[in-house]
Design goal:
The structure is a homodimer. In chain A, about 35% of the residues lie in helices and about 20% in strands. In chain A, strands 1, 2, 3, 4, 5, 14, 15, 16 and 17 form a nine-stranded mixed sheet that branches. Chain A is globular.
Chain lengths: ~400, ~400
Amino acid sequence: MTADILIRNVRPFGGQLSDLYIRDGWFAERGRQKAAVEIDGGGQIALPGLVEAHTHLDKTLVGMDWFENRVGPTRNERILADRRAKRELGIDARRQSMRQIMQTLAFGVMHVRSHVDVDTEIGIANIEGVVETRDKVKDLVDVQIVAFPQSGMLVREGTLALMEEAIKAGADIVGGIDPASIDRDPVRHLDAIFSLADRYQKPIDIHLHEPGDLGAFCLELILERTRALSLQGKVMVSHAYCLGMLDPQRQRSLIDALAAERIAVMTVGSPSAPALPLRVLLQSGVVMASGSDGIQGTWEPWGNGDMLERAKYLAQRNGMTNDADLKETAGICTFGGAEGIGLTHYGLLEGCRGDLVLVPARTLAEAVALTPQKRTVIRRGQVVARDGMLCGGPQHIG
Amino acid sequence: MTADILIRNVRPFGGQLSDLYIRDGWFAERGRQKAAVEIDGGGQIALPGLVEAHTHLDKTLVGMDWFENRVGPTRNERILADRRAKRELGIDARRQSMRQIMQTLAFGVMHVRSHVDVDTEIGIANIEGVVETRDKVKDLVDVQIVAFPQSGMLVREGTLALMEEAIKAGADIVGGIDPASIDRDPVRHLDAIFSLADRYQKPIDIHLHEPGDLGAFCLELILERTRALSLQGKVMVSHAYCLGMLDPQRQRSLIDALAAERIAVMTVGSPSAPALPLRVLLQSGVVMASGSDGIQGTWEPWGNGDMLERAKYLAQRNGMTNDADLKETAGICTFGGAEGIGLTHYGLLEGCRGDLVLVPARTLAEAVALTPQKRTVIRRGQVVARDGMLCGGPQHIG
């Protein structure tokens, strides 16, 4: 049980100045007694814990030697380079996942969904590494693990069995990837992962880079299976570039169907991939989440995992420059992500978990546009980072 | 005359470890005498002064109250909002240009080309303000001023005469904007600015947002006039989105013509505007420069003016993730920009001006991908910023 904490003078999600109170790790009505701990927020913006809905904790090279990237531009070249790097660089999934999680906790990221590779070379070693990290950090950060067949599933004999092993070893979610262009058989790929999810009562999260009408067809197959197995609210489609490549009418009908089946869409707002119709998706009621994807890995050399900066990228990619726009993209990186990955008791209201981030900015829009770094991070009523630096020292850094 | 300075153990543009020597403000061969000042670079990356080839110093709101952006999405709505903000917020061009320049000097930006508004409401007041700043900072930063008819030129009677006044008041370059879609008469618009440039022997820098074939037509008119007046190497086209919207053959022939007339192209790599074919432009020998455009203004709420971060954005927008790619985009923000805005004696070789930035990174690619902030900035042999903080205090901050 933690001490009560009163956080004065903050603007919850950019709203009116108010005080927030956390008792026993939960937002609560303020009692008559003086709180054990008081913080003056000085007008800062208070956000609920930032939600990283899509990353690859087992692939970051943070803290390792510089990786000289000479990789070709195609997805297959990148998958090959990625597999080679795992062998040759000795990327330790346990250590690297811990490094990324600690780096992003200082930004206020307290909920992380990570895809973790499962393949016939490494088996479920990466799953085991990230499970270890997940257990170690559970008081600080919620980690969800997706068993992810990065190198293909049906095309690599034995991968599906490993996916099942991964679930038994502690993976929370069944992953999938490009049922047509990588796995070469959309129906069998989707049947396999939906069946696995159904058997173990797990949610699903599918990487879908398939372009245009091919992607739309795969989305239809996903919709059919979600409906058939009553998995509404349990399926996320990551990237879904095809939604930005269709004629408006077809786009519209697919988006309406996604909203109806409560299938969430995750976009990182990549500047070089097709832009999703973000406004249409939001207005149609599709649950939108976002993520950093891999940070500082063999795929891309950049990225810091700051989900407030991600809200800026989403706005920039979509030409959204209004204060109201930035509130929308901040929403994607908090409430949208929380709903997309199935968090409960999320938010700044009484009855929610006592997690929040204080951002030194005058308005929510300024917080998104300038992403100030000197944040205060409070987890379950305890201050875990001040001025953008983790408190408590290196005992967590595994 | 400044003291000699020896900078040991640095990697010029990411190359082999070496020492750099600056005598009397110029890179020089190292003499036998001990240098008055010695710095150990500790293996950091040395870059020549970063080049900001396109910004709007008179429009930034840095350090002012938060501007709540409720502006509509069209260019005309934004131009109107921009003009209203100048009236209502009392943006002081002298003070604001100084703030931006000092902020970006700490990143290592030592060469700035700024478009500065000229219109029938403010006249040349903004030009005068930025001229004052330019004179004040001349030992620290080179500032070039473009007389910029943001609100239109022919469509606003009297603007052309003000442009000429702006040149007489110290503007270095003749600007232009969307000859067709804003000024409604591409031939007369371009004839007017080319004639003004010819009369005063000034370079030209044109904002060209015109899309597709309309933009291509305007580019042809610009090419014809550049050829007719022998202005090769004196013309820059800013944005030039149309280059990313044409069929490959038409794109190719225009790009070859731009290279032949040595017309430079400036792109900010905006995530929401059409992407230019960066690789084709570079391979074709077109001089490529980049800039931040407006930072923290009424157009867009974000931006810090760091031209090393800009190199990252350019790579991200174009899906360039290789170390070699990042060297190319770093080149655009240094050598390309320098050539585009007509700097001489630029670079890290003997005989060049003694300007450099030390970036704490292991490779040039890491410097671009992670944009470390704790840089050392040396101008004409004198350290003007350490650890990303300006030395010398507030006497420069106007």
